[in-house]
Write a structure and sequence with these properties.
- By secondary structure, this protein is mostly helical.
- 54% of the residues lie in helices and 0% in strands.
- The radius of gyration is 15 Å and the shape is elongated.
Length: 116
Amino acid sequence: GSTPTVSHTVKRASYSRPLLFSEDLAAGKSAEELQIEAWAKQFGLVVLEVERLFKLFREADEDNNGTIDIAEFHQLLQRFLGRKMASDIPEARIRRFWQGIDQDKNGSIDFLEFMT
């Protein structure tokens, strides 16, 4: 598979900004770097923290479609909680976490849902 592009992860227009300003182009920044900076500014976060979250998100997005589905989320929780077996995490707990993070209830998590 290929690495998802920023356009795949940004679904809501309210979270985007024009990515190509002359000073950004002169600095040689990629579209991904510019989007990460915009998210950091929008949410009042440090750029390095947003970069870390974006890297974790991309690693969890095993099919590279720009979202995390429930199966990918389950594997992410398993790694995050340090469990060896997927069955070590009760299904009810996974569903509870999922319902809290899948804000638009569309059955997948985009990066902005993941970040918040």
